[in-house]
Amino acid sequence: MVDLKRIAEIVAYYRALDESATLRHHFRHADEEGGLWYIEAVPDRGELIVLKQAELTAAGQLHRYSWEHLEDQHGGLTDQAIDPEQDPLEAIPAGEFQRVWTR
Is the pLDDT of residue 80 over 80? Predict the structure, then answer.
């Protein structure tokens, strides 16, 4: 059964981070299927928390996830903090992320 209270707490957490963030980091990651993942993350309690995530598939489909749209049948916003030192991420300019996000 879906825990609506827990979902509301998650949405509130991500929304508050998004609305109060003063520093945002942007990354890109290529997956094994030829897709590209674009990530916007903000620092919180010593970790980088993903606020927005867009997948541009090899077929050209775009899937976007944020506090406004946590998941769908294709996938969902990661609930794991990222570590640019450990994860295979490439830092990108904010404008590159925005071009994909608003596409």
Answer: yes
What's 85's DSSP letter? T
CA angle 40/43/44 to nearest 5° reads 125
CA 42 to CA 20: how far, in whole Å? 10
| Core vs surface per residue 87-99: b (16+ CB within 10 A) or e | eebeeeeeeebee
Under a CB-based contact definition with an 8 Å cutoff, are residues 81 and 47 in contact? Answer: yes
CA distance 45 to 47: 6
Question: Which H/E stretch holds residue 42?
Answer: strand 36-44
- Secondary structure, 3-state, 8-33: HHHHHHHHHHHHHCCCCEEEEEECCC
Is 85 a residue whose pLDDT tops 90? no
Give the CA radius of gyration of the chain. Answer: 14
